[in-house]
Amino acid sequence: MSLRRTLFVLLFVSFAYFYQAGGWNQNSRFALVRAITNDGTLRIDPYQGNTGDKSFFDGHFYSDKAPGQALAAVATVAPVRLIYRAFGGDPESFAGLALLSWVATVFTVGLLTASAGVVLFDLARDWGASSDAALFAALTFGLATPMWFLATIFIGHALAASCLLVAFAAAARVSAERELTPMRPVAWSAYPESRDRRHGLLVGLGAGWATVSEFPAAVPAVLLAGWTLASAWPLGRRRAFRLVAAMTGGAVASAVVLMLYQWACFGSPFHLAYSSESGDFGGMHQGLFGITRPTWHALYQILIGEYRGLLPLSPLMLAAPLGLVLLLRRPGPPAQGAIVASTIALFYVLLNASYHYWEGGWSLGPRHLAPALPFLCLGLPPLWHAGGRRGRTALLAAAVLSFGVSTISVSTMVQPPANVARPFRELIWPAFRDGDLALNTQTFVHHTVDAARWRTHEDPKAAFNLGMKLGLDGHASLLPLAVIWVLCGAALYRARRSEARDA
Predict the structure, then answer these.
(1) pLDDT top residue among 3 and 376
(2) How many CB atoms lie within 10 A of CB 101?
(3) What is the C-alpha to C-alpha distance for residues 472 and 322, in angstroms, rounded to an integer?
(4) pTM higher than 0.90, yes or no?
(5) Spatial CA neighbour of 340 closest among 248, 240, 220, 232
(6) pLDDT tens digits along 253-281
(7) Which helix (DSSP H) or strand (DSSP E) does residue 464 occupy?
(8) CA angle 218–219–220, rounded 5-degree value
(9) Are 180 and 173 in contact (CB under 8 A)?
């Protein structure tokens, strides 16, 4: 199996192995999936009691979340629901909802995030990285940052990050075309039309659907569109028109879906669900839906603090910006990409630090800056090459530490309560040490849970991993995943050796 396929399998299985069960955010999105597949409506009235994240308009309840992830999940949930019922199952039972919500998560955020890991690998190779350096960056992205546990829950951050990375990679390839094309008019047939259309469409659809899934992605989406336009113009009028037309088509298609959804729910294509928030979220009325200006307190907490800090969970991310600086020294697309990637990463950091609810409620790490992670990881391949043997040893040590923290977290609890001051130290590590995995007791039909009862097991666990479904318990439930990692590791090693022989 090729490097790319093995990488995809390794990441996809690692994401699909864990089911994190319910929570306000994912319950709100899945309520929309249930409303569409069960009732043929966008109103979540029968399911609104399962979440505090909801909108109320004209006598009816709606999900207050951007609809992209829920709409994408309908394509897989609807047929699985019919098949489950055909075999005698009840899709609205606890077991049925667990299956359907697992399917919804795995075949939206899990599938897209695993694909994004391959896209990151390809992009690093395009920019001159070795296979080892590109693999290091892709595996770090998927398994040694909070992206791993965000890819196992039915919320929109990892999906938006993956869509933005797809759009970024397509824009980077348009930029590379500009570097290879002489500055003179060329014949219409001199270049493959399908490639131009594909790149343009991926920019438009990727950036557009990221925005439909998480509204703040609109800012990076505009930046990527501008980069594509600037790169397309020197290619000649006809190629530029072809690229821009495809990009516009993808963006417009995404916008039409969002506007039709908002029109059907709220009577206006421009009415965001957050405008009709039903809960007691007074902070949403400050600034632009709760976004005002960055504060030093929030910035410290989302980067360094034990409560929601990125660096305690993934120390390797401390070095990633240095790699983006190294990319600036390379001419052409890598330097341009480093500027765009750094801008997107900085945007999400400042966005999170500017948000009234910067802590993200029940969250492990700063979930609102998660879409910055793939763009930070683009800085890892230059560091791999620049550091020599000692530098690579240090990077690997930081990656192993980050991977260990991620493994412990995704196995135990990825949405610790907001009142736990040091989630990893006070809740996650003690539970993992004791073999008490998959702590969440909140299903997709619960509104609240008593988190103080998790370790007492007075309530049945709703979360699980696939090893538990095989009858294994505690740390032993992770053994099947460890076996898959070993097999994929061996396949990566063989593919890498075969590639080296053919070089």
Answers:
(1) 376
(2) 27
(3) 43
(4) yes
(5) 220
(6) 999 999 999 999 999 999 988 887 776 66
(7) strand 464-465
(8) 95
(9) no
